[in-house]
Each structure stands twice: as C-alpha cells, then as structure tokens.
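Archive entry: two folds, one per protein. Generate the first.
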Amino acid sequence: MNELITKQLLFDFFEGKATSMQRKLIEQWLEDSENEEQYYRCVDEWERLHPQLLIDTEKSQHEYDFFLDGGIAQEKRAEVLFRVSRKSRNLLPWIGMLAAASVLLALAYVFRSELMYRSIESPHGRFTSFFLSDSTEVTLNSNSVLRVPRFGFGEDVRQVWLTGEAEFKVTHQKNNLRFEVLMGDGYRIEVLGTEFNAFSRARGKRVFLAKGKVKLNLPAGRELYLSPGNYFTADSKGTFKVVTPEEPLAITAWKEQTFYFDDATLAEVVEQINERFAVHIRIVDDELASRKIGGIYQAKEPEALLEILSAMFDMKITRSADEIELRTPIKQDL
C-alpha cells in the first residue's frame, strides 16, 4: 500500500471524515487496479467494525412483557401498547433496509469475486496455451480451468487456482515474488521460477517437476520439496508418494493430444478418457475393466480411441444420451 494511503485514512474516508485533498489522493490511488483488492479488504474490515443499524429490541420487548404481566396500571397500558406498536412501525422501514442491505452485501461479495478474478477454460478434447500478466506461460489441458486475477498480480504473491491439469513455465521476478498454484483440498505449489506439470482432479493430485525447484504445501501443514525429475502423486485419501519415472512422456503426452499407457488397466484408460473429454464411459464387466493395455495412441476425440479399444478387446460399445457402456459381447454357441 502507498505510504500515504493508510488503513486509518481509508477508515476516515468511509466515515466521511476525509478532506477533499485526501479523497482526491484515494481516487488517484484507486486508478491503479492492483490496489482494488486492498481497498475491498479495508471495506470489509470497516463494515465489520461499524454495523450500520443498531436496534434496541430488548428494551421494547421488556416493556411489552411487563405490560402483559400486569405490571402497568390499566390506564397506562394503552399508552405503552401504542408506544411499542409505534416503535415497531417505525422499525419496519429500517428492517426492510437491513434485509435489502444484507442481500446487496451478499451480491457484492459474489460480483466482487467475478470482478477481481476470471476463469480461463480449455474446451473438451483440446488444450489452450496463453501467457499470464507476469509472462508465465501456461498450457491448459482439456476440460480444465485456471482462475487468475483479472487485474494482474499483487505485491505479495502471484497466485492462481487450478482445476484439471496444466503445464507452467513460471517467469522468475527480480523481486523474487513467489508463484503459487492452489489445487484445493489443502494442496499448494510454491515456486519462484521453474517448469512443472500440475494435475488436480477428484481422483487425486499430481506434480511433475521438469526444471527448477518447488515446495509443495500438503494438508495438515506438511511440506515437501521436489527436485527435477520428481513426480509427486496423491490419491483422494491423501496417501502420496514421490518417484522418478523412467518415461516422463506418460505424464506430458496430453500436450501432443496423445495417450501413453504403460501396462494400464482398461479402467484406468477409461478414467483418463472421461477426464480429458468430459464424457461418462462405464465398464459393465469387471473382467473387462481389469484387462491391460500399453502403447501410445493419438486421439483428438473419444470415439477415435474407443474404436481402437473395441478392436483390441473385442468389446461392445453401447451409447445413450447420458453415458457410454463398454461390455464383453456374449459369444453364441455354434
């Protein structure tokens, strides 16, 4: 924050105590979009410290209860009842305003999130490459989303949110500003400048480090450092391991729109197809699901890979509006 723009100055501004020169200074400060997030944080804190409506309902309720209990002379009851009723009527507009304000605050929070951040999505069956405001290159796998600050990174951290899979080539900053990828469920990647592949889906988290060094922040406050060639994998239960794969192509094959299978079960193959193309393929037979496959296959759409699998495993493919079923055909006796 600018040394002239302090939290106390912003609080004075919210309370209408700022001078015209101070208001002008704040307006100029807000012209820099990087200051908007700090401004909204101060707004939230000030609103929590300064509720805009205080209603003494306890006093009114006490008077009314006292009246019902006969604690007031008969000739005074009509006067008290009128006074309590009048207070209630006077509060109605304020209560309505309070309800409307609550709704507006909730909407402001939602729309502020939309204002401050944008989501970059990669279509099904295709990947998308782009540069962030700090020149970091991102290649986003199909059926994946990266949430990034709309107005650029702040002064403390470069932070993005990943759902799906992406390759990052992070640009090192002169001020050593760290770059973080939040993957949900307590997983966070922290780097300064490096190249890595990150995977974040329902079935687990994965990070493959190509160059540089990264620190992984894991659930329950654990930390783990990776070196080039390390491959971190964690399942949905949080069980993780770090290995050095002999063939990294299996991890990055998606950039060539290919599938790399090394003694993979058909169930694992189907899981990858579902993730990459956002389809729902179900294997009916357990025996069929456990059969294995190896090799490299290029496929820009699920049908191309399904045709290959159908020929390899002599299986029947049944399509409906909601899903695709794979099953072993029943052989007729001759």
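Generate the second and append.
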Amino acid sequence: MKVVRTLLVEEDYGKRRHKHRHKQRPYVYILSLLLIAAWVLVIWHFSTQSYQQQTIQPWLHKWSEKVKIGFALPDVQFTYGELDYSLRQRPYDFVEFIFRKSAHLFVYAVLAVLIYGGLRYRKVRMWACIAAALTLVAIIASIDEYIQQFSPNRTSSIRDVGVDLLGGCGGIALYMGVNVVYRRFRSPRRSSVKRK
C-alpha cells in the first residue's frame, strides 16, 4: 500500500512539474523571438551606415604608427568581386576586408543560433530547425544587402549572402558541438547520482 501511495505521489509531482515547465515555455519562446528581432534590427542598422561610419582604417593607421613591424609582409593576394586585395601592396584595405567578412560571419552565426535554439526549445525536429534557420538567414542577409546599396560608398553583393550563410552554418555547427560536449560532461554526473 505504501509503495502504491508513493508512486501516486511521485506521478502527481511529475505532472505538476511538467505543467509548471509548460507554463514557463511561452515566456522563454517570446524572449527568444525578441532577441532575434533585436539582433535583426542591429544588423539592419549597420546596413544603413555609410562606409565612412564603419571603416576601421583610421584606427589601423594609428595602430600601425605605434607598432613597428620589423619584417616584410607576405604577398597574399586574392580577388573578391571586382576588387583585388594584396596584403603587401594595400595592407589596410586587406585587413579591413578580413575584418568586415569576419564580422559578417559572426553576426549571422549568432542570428542562426538564436533561430535554431528558439525552434529546438519548441521541440521542432533538428533538420527542420536547421532549414528554417538558414532560410531566415538567407532572407535577412538578402534584405541587408538590398539596404546597403542605398548607403553612401557601400555596395551590395550576392557573394556576401553566401558569406552570411557560411556564418549561419558555422554558428549552428558550433552550437550543436557545444551541446554534445555539454551533454557528455553532464551524463557521468547523472549516472553517479543514480548509483548513490
């Protein structure tokens, strides 16, 4: 009789706990939607800025005056779009280009993680989450590039949408990798608690 009573109490406690969790979920989901909307607004705000507002070249010139490089730079060259970049011939343009594309990767990696994480929290299937996150990244990146063409001395390029998608893929892959590592570190603790 005691065993049955204990099982009923545990089942009732489990139901109440599940209901409590279910009540909290909409708030977390709304918070994730607000974070996504805020991040998209930040991205689009940067799209409206002119090249002069965003350039890091004045800072690079000041920094290079303080730090003297005592060796010849390697001759790294590549073409992106219609422009040629050379580390030796135009180092400031080269470094600024790398900085800008890294910023693209980071910004869209965060966006993809926010979308993916929000959908996974709602128990949506993993592949559906990935597809939805990357589709939204592509749409927002396309709008971002469209806005940029109206900003002074800025150009829009379909290549940048590709860079943004790479950032989204990288962000999701990193997020999933961190989750796997976290679960592996967490699972031995659970099993040791159960054994005790």
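Annotation attached to the second fold: Residues 2-49+92-195 form one domain. The CA atoms of residues 152 and 179 lie 42 Å apart.
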